[in-house]
Amino acid sequence: GAGVSQSPRYKVAKRGQDVALRCDPISGHVSLFWYQQALGQGPEFLTYFQNEAQLDKSGLPSDRFFAERPEGSVSTLKIQRTQQEDSAVYLCASSLTGGLRQETQYFGPGTRLLVL
Amino acid sequence: TQLLEQSPQFLSIQEGENLTVYCNSSSVFSSLQWYRQEPGEGPVLLVTVVTGGEVKKLKRLTFQFGDARKDSSLHITAAQPGDTGLYLCAGSRHITGGGNKLTFGTGTQLKVEL
User: Fold this and answer.
1) Of the candidates A18, A19, B73, B105, which lies 20 to 30 Å from A63 by C-alpha distance?
2) Measured between CB atoms, which of A31, A103, A110 is closest to B42?
């Protein structure tokens, strides 16, 4: 089937606005990850879901960042009161179970967020 | 904070040349992965290495995992323009409760010119 999809692909927000980024993982994938990637850098882990349970949110930069996956499939990353330093590409990835150390994570194309 | 340092950060070479990218860390990982990322797309997995000292070959690409499972290298033979992209190493660590999260390296931007 289809790969991981993300929407919107591009988002321009004024400083102080709230934004919501959506991730549709591969159907049937248990694990879902969010990463933040600055230009020319490697992605940095934000948070991890196993089904609807958020097992790790240690990478969220501040309490302005909130993620949910209420039915264990689609996930939304919400950023409140956006700041210029939030400008980055936000990547979503999913994997089949998440239990194996060598399991493949499949990445979406990302949402490029620009905060003015 | 990125725990995995990659070198070089940028590399511009001519078609047909060989190159090596290094990925170094002070931490031990249960496995290490290499990805390639093209503009406007997410990273795509190239290989996973699990055992210290392991060597894997994928056509013109050779991957090696250090004996202590802290560092790795990627060697490309006879580079082609299609090899152009951002190369990322990523170490895997177990998450309490299940799952594994990736710690990515700082990235190596490779450009191969005709």
Assistant:
1) B105
2) A110
Interface probe, candidates B101, B103, B111, chain A, greatest A C-beta count within 10 A: B101
- pLDDT tens digit string along A34-78? 999 998 899 999 999 999 999 999 999 999 999 999 999 999 999
For residues B21-38, one letter each, b for 16 or more C-beta atoms within 10 angstroms of the residue's C-beta and e for the rest, the string is: bbbbbeeebebbbbbbbe
**pLDDT tens per residue, range B57-108:** 999 999 999 998 889 999 999 999 999 999 999 998 887 777 788 999 999 9
Residue in A with minimal Cα distance to B102: A45
B81 three-class SS: helix
Chain A interface includes B99 (CB < 8 A): yes
Radius of gyration of chain A (CA): 13
Mutation test of the interface with chain B: which of A29, A41, A57, A103, choosing the one with the most B Cβ atoms within 10 A?
Answer: A41
Do residues A49 and A92 make contact, with C-beta atoms less than 8 angstroms apart? no
Rounded Cα distance, B51 and B71, in Å: 12
Question: Does the CB of B90 have a partner CB in chain A at under 8 Å?
Answer: yes
CA-wise closest residue to B36 among B87, B73, B83, B84: B87
